[in-house]
């Protein structure tokens, strides 16, 4: 396909894993800081970036997290002028972008930024650490309820990127599966058997998602979100 301009990299961010909140047993790198100049990106993610719990964060299918800076205005409108929303990085993203959102990307899209070629790997399933970061007991649930979750990439071609780079779509194999539709199935039309089977048929569906879909189809009920969204 002819490359299509989707948006622009507003900031590139990375962070170190440090003790988080009032739980000394928990570490997190959600507090990321903008980087000046080119940053190397490989299959593991941004050079110098860390994850607090590699069982659920990072890895090749969550190498880089992007979040639309365009969503920040809506969050400020709903939550007020929180300090965490004053600059990019509020959601622990590696790439803060402008000009695009979940409805503008599809499952498996291949996207180039700088010399890096990414592939859309999954949408974010928000966790309880956002509640602590924002001082909102239901922040994780707010993300999934609004569909403003952000998304993850795997890295197909390593390289470098930096703030100001164009974000260009170079391949779209699943145009009928925008990320907004994926989010709709995960959190709203949760027991629609036809949609669940269609989601399960997508290539490179993460193993944890395969199990989620299989359980919903077999049991006819939605999994408990409390552990992920409330930390319990």
Automatic annotation (TrEMBL):
Domain MOSC residue range list: 33-170
SUPFAM superfamilies: PK beta-barrel domain-like
Pfam families with a match to the protein in the record: MOSC, YiiM_3-alpha
Entries under InterPro entries matching the protein: Benzoxazolinone_Detox_Enz, MoCF_Sase_C, Pyrv_Knase-like_insert_dom_sf, Tri_helical_YiiM-like
GO molecular-function term, one example from the UniProt record: pyridoxal phosphate binding
PANTHER family: PROTEIN YIIM (PTHR30212)
Protein name (Swiss-Prot/TrEMBL): MOSC domain-containing protein YiiM
Taxonomic placement: Bacteria, Pseudomonadati, Pseudomonadota, Betaproteobacteria, Burkholderiales
